[in-house]
Amino acid sequence: MEQEKRQKMLAEYCKTRDVGLRNELVTEYMYLADMVARKYAGRGVEYDDLKQIAAMALIGALERFSCDKGIQFSTFAVPSMTGVVKNYFRDRSRIIRMPRTIGERVQKITLAREALTQELMRAPTPREIAERCGYSEADVLEATEAMQSLSLTSLDAQVGEEEDTPLASMLGQEEAEFENIALRDLLQKVMDKLSDAEKKILHMRYFEERTQRDIAREMGVSQMYVSRVERKMLARFREALREA
Amino acid sequence: MVDCITLTVPAKESALMVVRLTAAGVAARMEMDLETLDDVKTAVYEACYAMTMQKFIPEQLAICFAPGEPFAVKICAEGAWRETAGKVPDLKLCYAVLTTMIPHVKVDMDERKIRCIELHR
User: Fold this and answer.
1) Taking CA atoms, what residue in B is nearest to A147?
2) Does the beta-carbon distance from B53 to A113 stay under 8 Å?
3) Domain B5-120, classified CATH 3.30.565.10, yes or no
4) What's the gap between Cα A125 and its chain centre?
5) Where are the domains of chain B?
6) pLDDT tens-digit profile of A112-145?
7) What value of ipTM does the predicted structure carry?
8) Nearest residue of A to residue B30 by CA position?
9) Any CB–CB contact under 8 A between A202 and chain B?
């Protein structure tokens, strides 16, 4: 259909909000959904799925679009569809899914925590974070608990000054394979500061490649404790590499 | 201990998240930073976990939070004991784990049962 006719149809829809007209417009503008889907295809999600998500977002964009804004519909719709597709990827990337509001809260709190740590030169309190974000302290505590579900440490976690060295490359290898003596010394220094229980967890996790649940069961501790030890160890390795 | 906030829960792992959240709430009132708060939460959880996973488990746990200086928590067994397939606790490990998170730990154990654990910052 010509652009002019499409514009007239859109203007008519803005006035009447007729569902039939909306559906016709969805068909006309489906090329936008196709464009967004193609852009994000090949990242672990099928093109057809992405097109469906983008199409749903297109409907939403049409329903929200106001002809008074003085902008092209495509200018309005494409960022909206892109945002929805990105949210889909974000939600899928979590091993444990959480409600969108909590996920967004976690993100905001994480940023606030990092900023406050730099400003205050110490870890912030929940009240300080709550004030920065405009949340209640209870919200901050809830989000902090939710963050535990994101704290699964991957052997692909990046450490090092440029955060470009996978943790797995530093651990679980025969000593004869360590060519970088400085790195081996650094690893030894960090490990020397660990308690016996922490060393045992490190060995079971990264050398025997056992799950947290397995380790917890064998040691007679909670999985939450094992997860905490792992998080702390990774933080220490990062700090040691930054200082080195 | 004075001004104690007491929470009583069944001695089951499923009830321990409530304990953890209460510990977080009480510690937040004391203006602890997030890292210290995380240590306190995990220590309280771990202490309760040790008491629910031992060979003899009590009916319930009474957790007393004393939000003063120093911050203290006391977890005590209450009610009848029952025997399970669990292990008799390794006291050395218990201390080793808890003291990585909170400096002062006291475990009251007799007849192969942990009866009380006190944690002080």
Assistant:
1) B38
2) no
3) yes
4) 23
5) 5-120
6) 988 898 888 888 999 999 999 998 888 888 888 7
7) 0.73
8) A125
9) no
